[in-house]
Amino acid sequence: MLPSQILLRPMRHVSATVTRSASSYARNPASRAATKKRLKTESSQIEANVSFLLPTTLVAPPLWRYPRQPSKFVHMLWLHLKARFDAFKSLVGFKVMSAPKLLMSRPRFKAQRASAIPTAKALHVQMSEAFAAGDRESLRSICSTELHRSLVEAIDARPRGVRTEWELVKYDKTWYYPRLADWRIAMLPRQTGGMTTIKQAVVSISSVQRLARYDDTKGGAKINGSERVRHMLEHIVLQADINDKTYEHGPWRLWGTIPESTYESYLQEIADSQVAFSEDQRQARS
C-alpha cells in the first residue's frame, strides 16, 4: 500500500545540497568559476528530480461528509465548484496555448483524463507488489524521487530474512470508487529560471488488501499475527511532466497519497497558497 499522507518538503533537500556545495566554494577561491558551474548543474539536476503537490489540490468529501452547519456546507460546496472551474479554466487556457495558430487550429495538447483511473489502478498494484518484494528498481521507474526514497528507507528498515507478501483481494465500494477526485494542470516556475508544466490527477481507490510476513530464516514460515486484511481508501496522486515544445506528456508517476480534504484543512491550504504566492511575487520584485 502507499504510505499515507506523504507530504514531503523537497526544497529542504535542495537547500541542504546547495549549502554543502557552497561551503567548498568558499574554501577554494581559485576554483570559483568551476564550482559555480557545478552548483548550477547540481541545482538543475536536483530540481528535475523533485516534485511538488500542486497548490490547492482538493479531494472533496462526499456531500454526506460536508459540514453540517448550513453556512459552512454552502461555502464548502462553493469552494468545490470554484476549484473545478479554476482547473477547467487552466486546462482550456493550456489547450489554446498549445495550438500552432491561436483559434485557427486544433490544440496539440491532449488531456487524456480517461487514462488516469486505469493508470492509477495499475500503478497502485505494481507499486504495492514491488514494495512488498523489495524491488527497488521497479519502484524507481514508477515513483517520484521522494516517494521512491521513502519506500526504499522502509524496505531497508525491515528485519533481515523477513519477507512481505501483498495481495489485492478486491476493489470495494465499486458503486462510488474508483473515481477521479481531482485533475489539474499548472505551470510552475523553476528555481533555475523558466517554467515547467505538470499534469496531476488524484484518483480515489477503495480496496481490500491482504498483507502477511514470512520468516525465510525459518523455512519461509508465516510470522504469527502478521497477516492482516484491511479495507483501504486511498487518494493516489499521479503526476506527469509536459514537454513545453511538443505538448506531449511523459509517463505518469506515483507522487504518493493525500488525505481527504476537510472544510478547515482546505481553507488552510488556500491561505498557505496565498502566502506562498505573495512570497514569490516579493522575491520576483527584489
UniProtKB/TrEMBL annotation:
Coiled-coil segments on the chain, per record: none
Pfam family for this entry, one: MBA1
Record organism: Monosporascus ibericus
Protein name: Tim44-like domain-containing protein
Cellular component, GO annotation: mitochondrial inner membrane
Location within or outside the cell: Mitochondrion
InterPro entries named in the record: Mba1 (IPR024621), mtLSU_mL45 (IPR051975), NTF2-like_dom_sf (IPR032710)
Gene Ontology biological process terms from the UniProt entry: protein insertion into mitochondrial inner membrane from matrix
Chief place of localization: mitochondrion
Key words of the record: Mitochondrion, Transit peptide
Region annotated Disordered, chain positions: 19-40
